[in-house]
Structures are given as structure tokens and as C-alpha cells.
Amino acid sequence: MKTFWLAAAATCALLTAVPALAQTAAAEAADAKSPVARPETPASKPEAAAPAADLSKAPRMGSWGFDLAGRDTATAPGQDFFQYANGTYQKALVIPGDRVSYGAFDALTVLSQDRLHALLGKAAAEKSAAGDQAKVGALYRSFMDEAKVDTLGAKPLSADLAAIKAAKTKADVARLMGKSQHVFGGSIFGASVQVDGKDPDHYAVYLNQAGLNLPDRDYYLEASFAKQKTAYEAYVARMLALMKWPSPAASAKAVVAFETDIAKASWTKVDQRDDNKMYNPEETAKLAALAPGFNWTAFMAGAGLAKVDHVVVQEKTAFPKIAEIYAKAPLGTIKAWQAFSLADQAAPYLSKPFVDARFDFRGKVLTGQQQQRPRWKRGVQLVDSQIGEALGKVYVDAYFSPEAKAKALALVGDIRTAMKGRIERLDWMSPATKQKAVEKLAAFTVKIGYPDKWRDYSKLTVREDDLYGNVNRATTFDWDFRAARLGGPVDRAEWGITPPTINAYYNPTGNEIVFPAAILQPPFFDPDGDPAVNYGAVGGVIGHETTHGFDDQGRLYDGTGRLTDWWTPEDAKKFAAEAAKLGKQYGAFEVLPGAKINGDLTMGENIADLGGLLLALDAYHASLHGRPAPIIDGLTGDQRVFLGWAQVWRGKTRDDAMRQQLVSDPHSPEKARVDIPMRNVDAFYAAFGVKPGDPMYIAPENRVRIW
Least enclosed by CB within 10 Å: which of 38, 140, 309, 704? Predict the structure, then answer.
């Protein structure tokens, strides 16, 4: 089953990658490492997972926007700023058993879940509801009827499993792989309809490498993940046995070997970050010559794309290698792989044995999660991922005011003004590139809170007695919606995440920054709190997404969203040199014993964090209009900006989940997102009296100067 996104390039999100519009694992056992949850109490203890009595708003952090009690004042800011700002909170924090991480972001996520839970409970109880709200209620009821799901056992899989068993040739399998782009199933190649990076006014079909069911190729190839790979083989065998597949243990061994070969041929996530390398237009008729051994005609027909004559191939050099692996593999191995992929994707919507098997591996083994999330939480996530705008519309009506939107737009304006000033003051960039950078900034589209145009779900069928079918139909509905737009104009009003999501993103082909309603509350934004903290928190978030338009990949797109080179060679060389300096700082940061940050994988997010902090500080200074900043609880304005940034990143992550993040996620761990940017900001040294010899100190000539 394929997940979708609306931009050709990797969209730059504040946290983990932006949730796809149709998401196969929405209700899976392992909780995706997500953003925010309810802010913590002034006593700095994590809040319980139970719904809050008052869901109307997120509670304030401390008395003016910052949790003073959460600091560790025994640690000097110049020694370890993250510890200074958050140490007491960190010490008291215990990750709930059903989560892989917890902190400021997770607290707001919990609040969103509680709010959606209340809204869904009401929708599910109103069986007389009509339109989208009837579908919302029916989908939630279909998931929450656990007794019926358990009674069905593996029966929902029967038709899809029979199709796999009936395949006589590899061409038959290739057709099923094409079909799996819009229903449950697996494929060694993926297809999606996205905005064309070289023609951002139109859509194109993109093809990408696929076939790996572990989080990253490193899980197959690196000795440090040997334990997880062994457990994975046992999990494959367990799933095959649940489906009564013949010789499950032997089949599982062959499946893992098949995926290991694909992993060897696959591009790394660092390679996949290069948007120019990932854009390779090709005539569909020539795919057979590019990657012989795979029946592309059958694949495209199965995907419903038989009439498409041009595609964009992404990991181009991997395609012939993966196709060759497919051609050489026994048909039985490929069919066993497809059967497992089907069950692995569908498990969250099947009976308890499937749910437990998936959680035991993807939850416990891969992330260290101790307990399965309550079913209602998984149901909330399912509805939000499948028909999220129908649910989001109700959320906005209940929890997001026009006043909040207006204030957020004003903050965005402040940050854009700060960015324009930074561009104009750069001493390393030529006037020609500066002019185009300013033009790009001026062309930014800003989306706040919720879409101006909501999705129409009237043609989607949702039945309260058919959970498996509901998820399949919702995914097909989304696929058909996107495929129907091929050849037509790009919908600039579309959103990639729903209003209750705690995240934000920059979309390069749309040249747009997007901030959903749920993130515009404490600890990010408190309309009655200290402006300095607001600038450091939500101002830093806005600055982060703004800087993404000018990070190492975002800078490759012009103001129209076109992937094109608008830099002088000299400017590009200077930029790359500074970016490399930043990459080395992150690459030296040890997160766990023997596990360091990949500075190349996280480059774009690291640049955005540094830029976001600088822009937040500039915007705060401008907001004072020459007046001195007030002192609050002995803290200066600049100090409170830095503390506001640090506060939003406080939290803990389980070790196994952290090791997964380090190889698969373009975002650095929270502590690095605080300490490393601080060390490159001159004002930080003045604000806290950081001196040579302090662990946080970097000599001025070695500080990174990008934006």
C-alpha cells in the first residue's frame, strides 16, 4: 500500500517526516515518534495519559510561558545549555509505557488525541449523522468494534492472499505490485503522483525504490542491528504462520535474504536527500531498457497508470539492480514476501494475534515501546490519517479561533522581515544571488491553521462493519483523487497535514510554509505569555520552516517552486563550505555509546534549526522598537528567547527508538537541536557569559555563518 505526499521533493518538516495523506500504519502498534503533547506542570512532572478535565486550551508553562522549575541551575549555561534549561524536568520525566518518547511535543500530541477522542466519541454516538461526520463516526466505530474484528480473524485477508497464491508468473506478481500502490500489499518499486519538480504547475508520476520492511537499509547490513534483523526473521515467520503459509520458517529466511539483497542495491537516505540526483525524467516505454527483469507494463497497468507516457525515476542507479534481484529470485520467495508485506501492513486492522505479533516486533524490538497503545488512541490516529480533513474541520471549529490565526500571521510577518534583513546583510553572498533570494522569500505562501478548501469525501464508502475494507477503500479513494489530476493544474490550496497535527513544514515545489492549528498553543505560542518566549518557541519554528526554503536542498528551488540553479557558482561554494562546518559539529555529537549523528543526513534540518533561532532573536529585537527588554525573574529578553527554544525540545526517547532515528530520520535528537545551534549564535555568548574553556564555547572564527 502506497502512502502519498503532494510535493516531489522531500518536504521539510519540523519533526519527523510529514504524515502522508493516506497512511497504512495509522493505527499500528508502534507509536511514530511524534511532536507535542500536553505541556507539563510547573512541578515538571509528565502529565498522565488520561484526558484532561479541560480540553479547551493547553495550560501555560509556568506563570509567564517558561517552566522555571524545570531548569537545572546547578549546571552553568556554558557547560550544557540543554541540561541548564531542562535538567530538572528531564530527571523527573518517565516515558509512558505506550510511547517511545515523551516531552513537550508529545504532551501536545496527547492533548490533540484527547480532543479528537472527545469529538470522535460524539460522532460515533450520533448514528443519525449525515455526510462526512457520518463517515467519521462509522470509521471510528469499525475500528473500536474489537470483538467483531477478532471474530473475523484472518478472513479479511482472504481475497488478497488468494490473488497472491494464484499468481503464475512474475508478470502476474508485477501487476499485483502495481495494484498495491492503492490497496494493501507490497512492491519492490513505488509509484506516486506528485508535483513535478521541474514543472511545478503540473503533476507527474514518480517512481522510487521500495521493498524494505525494516526502517532503513542499515538494519540489514550493519552489525549493530544484527539483533533486530534476527528478530525480524522470526516476525516474518510468525506472520506467515498466522496466514497458514507453507513452510513459514524457511520462507521467512528466504524473504529476509531477498530484502537484504535489495538493501545492498538501495540508495542511502543521504543519497535520497539530493533532489537533483532524485530527478530523472524517463519515457515509460524505456523503463524496460533501464531496469530489465521487471515487467513495467504489468506494474503500470496494475497501478492504473497504463496511459502515462513519462515518469520521474528517483534512485535511478538502483532500479536495474533491484529489477535484477527480482528476476533472479524464485517466484515462491517473491510470493511469500508479498504475503508477509500484506499481513504486516494490514495487521493493525486484523484480529489480536496479528496486532500482537506486529507490536511485539515493531513496538518492542524496534523502538523499545513497552505497552500497546489503548485502542481508542489507535482509532483516533486511524481516522485522522484516513479522512483527517473531515475530522479536522470539527477540531478547528472547537479549538482554533480567528484571533489565534491573526496573531500567528503577524508572527510569520515578523520572521519574514527578519529573514529579508539577514539576506541583505550577508557578507558572503553576491548581489545577484541576494536579489533572487529576496524574490523567493517574497513569493512564499503562508498557510495557517487549516485549509481554505476542505477535502470532499462524498464518494468514499465507509461501513461500520468493515474495518479492513474501509482502510483499503480510503487508500484507493486518495490514489484515484491524485491520479485523476495528472495533466491538470496543481492545487495550490492543498495541505499535507491535518489541523490537529503537532508539526509544521516547508514545501519546496509550492514554496510554502504551513503551520496547523494544533501547534499554535503553549509551549509554542501563548498569546498571554512573555513575547520573548513566544519568539524563541513558535518564532523559532516559523524561522525553521522559513530557513528550509534556503537550506542545502530548499535553496535549489526558485520562487515558483522549480528545481533550478539560481545561485552563482561562487556563492554555492561558500554556502557548501559553511554547511560542511555545521555537518562536522553534528557528526561529532555522540548520542548513545558508539552512536553519533549523521551530519549529512540531518543537514537540512540542522541548517533550519540554526536559521530559525537566529531569525527568532532578530524578530524579537525588532519587536522592541528600540526599547530595552524587560527583566523577568532575573532573566533578560535574549536569555528568555534561548530558553523558549530549549523548552520546546525537552523530552526523552527510548534507546532503540533513538538508534532507529539516527539512521532513518533527517532530524537530530533534541539535545543536539538545542546545544549545537546555540554554540553558533554570537548573542548566546553575550547573554549567558560563555567564555573560552566552557564546553559550549566555540571560537568566533569557527562558528558557522550561513543565514
Answer: 309
